[in-house]
Design goal:
With about 350 residues, the chain is of the alpha/beta class. The protein contains 14 helices and 16 strands.
């Protein structure tokens, strides 16, 4: 189905070659933000409810009343306009993000992979050191995808205990375990249905939960903790880790079959020390955004300070650079960051680089 062929779909449930509900399911799966107005002369209240629960935007009974149809089309058009404006805002927000600004070949490769992977449903594994921008790339993969009409659901696996992580991912029924509470909880995999799910620090997930995640991905169904019903899900999975997954597989810490399920495409984020040519542009972007935030008059960096920034190895990568520039802005009374506004270990990097020469 060509997702760009229509802005609004007017669908008759009674089709000459099948059920309109079958086509409705396909439209909702392939283009969840496309509004579908269902029309039928054979419907009743139950059918209307069924259509709305299955993703229809509106339901109209035949014979169709023209004013009612026009009003429904206008409402659907407002939704289309809203999604377009939201998508444009998101694209503008991500297009100028400093973390992926680059003149380096390593980041050119990253951006090329993003543009190729984003429109597809393929699972993507993001690898690289802490602070290299993996979360940002996950956001780009979602906002540039057909699923961008719905919010990307994110969870940091390292920040949640093993027991609670299962509940967060799969949800639980009322009173399913001690402390579960009297109400059903939807899991994030269920919440992310029709959208993207980003699992950060996937390498911290324990083996038993890895097995449950693998089954859910292969069968495209989940079962809430304490539940018996299988729930169909349609998610685009993005995962990230700063650890060596292959080494973890060798040591038995990570399932090899899950790794291959996650790694349809791997995007390796280069460390900042391997893309030093990008530091001036990144620094300028940080100054521009942070100076505006703090009401600061700083507009640039003096040459000797920039030399120090370029010479430093940046163990914390781009996040480290951002924090350094923020600190310098707070210390700077003029309009140019000088070397004295930088931490001692960064100032020393200039002399170390000169000695090596």
């Amino acid at each position: 189905m060509d997702q760009d062929a229509a802005d609004i779909v007017l669908l008759d449930i009674k089709l000459p070659d099948g059920s309109g509900f079958t086509l409705l399911d396909r439209i909702v799966q392939e283009s969840p933000s496309l509004p579908v107005i269902v029309a039928t002369g054979y419907g009743d209240i139950a059918m209307a409810v069924d259509a709305m629960q299955n993703g229809a935007f509106d339901f109209i009974a035949k014979p169709i009343d023209a004013p009612i149809l026009i009003r429904s089309l206008e409402n659907a058009g407002d939704q289309v306009k809203l999604y377009r404006e939201l998508g444009q805002l998101r694209r503008e927000r991500w297009s100028d993000q400093y973390w992926v600004q680059s003149t380096s070949k390593s980041m050119d490769l990253v951006n090329d992979l993003i543009s190729k992977a984003a429109p597809t449903p393929a699972s993507v594994l993001l690898t690289g050191e802490t602070g290299t921008g993996k979360s940002l790339v996950a956001g780009l993969l979602h906002t540039q995808s057909p699923r961008s009409g719905k919010a990307c659901v994110t969870i940091n696996c390292a920040a949640i205990s093993d027991h609670m992580l299962e509940s967060e991912l799969f949800g639980h029924e009322a009173n399913a375990f001690t402390g579960a509470g009297p109400k059903r909880k939807l899991g994030l995999m269920e919440v992310a249905d029709g959208s993207s799910l980003f699992l950060d620090e996937i390498s911290t997930m324990k083996a038993d939960l890895q097995a449950k995640l693998l089954r859910a991905l292969e069968d495209r169904v989940i079962r809430r903790v304490g539940g018996t019903k299988e729930i169909a899900i349609d998610i685009r999975l993005i995962t990230a880790t700063n650890r060596d997954i292959m080494q973890m597989i060798s040591s038995g810490e990570f399932r090899e079959d899950l790794y291959y399920r996650l790694n349809v495409l791997e995007i390796v984020m280069p460390p900042l020390r391997d893309r030093t040519e990008d530091i001036p542009a990144l620094t300028g972007s940080f100054i521009q955004s942070l100076a505006l935030h703090y009401g600061n008059q700083v507009t640039g960096v003096r040459p000797r300070a920039m030399e120090a920034l370029i010479s430093y190895k940046w163990p914390g990568n781009i996040r480290d650079l951002k924090n350094t520039i923020e600190r310098a802005l707070l210390l700077c009374d003029g309009n140019q960051i000088d070397i004295g506004h930088l931490p001692k270990e960064i100032r020393k990097s200039v002399n170390s680089a000169k000695c090596k020469k």
